[in-house]
Request: fold
Amino acid sequence: MTEPIYHLALATDWAEACRTGSYRTSTRGRTLEQEGFIHASRADQWEGVRDRFYRDVTEPLVLLVIDPARLGAPVRDEPVGEETFPHVHGPIEVAAVVEVRPVPTDGGPGTGK
Reply:
């Protein structure tokens, strides 16, 4: 497997992806079609994303561990502020997700890397 990338998802959005075969939520409240890509993170970035953008979420979150080699869409590292983040320029096929981890939504420690 190539170096995985990560995406925080509402458990309900992931359940819908499992029903349809592909995940199409870019980020909280925005679709792939609205944003033009799906936001992702590297192993050292996803907890910061959770802390900045998902701190007030009370419904269950999951961390999708994605093998980029299994994606049908290109992944590009693109600048966001002072950093670069991987962006998936198309839907994430369910088969590209190699692990799904529950994520605490209470501001507690993450699931590890």
User: Anything to note?
Assistant: Residues 109-113 have pLDDT under 50 and may be disordered. The longest strand covers residues 97-103. The two ends are 16 Å apart (CA to CA).
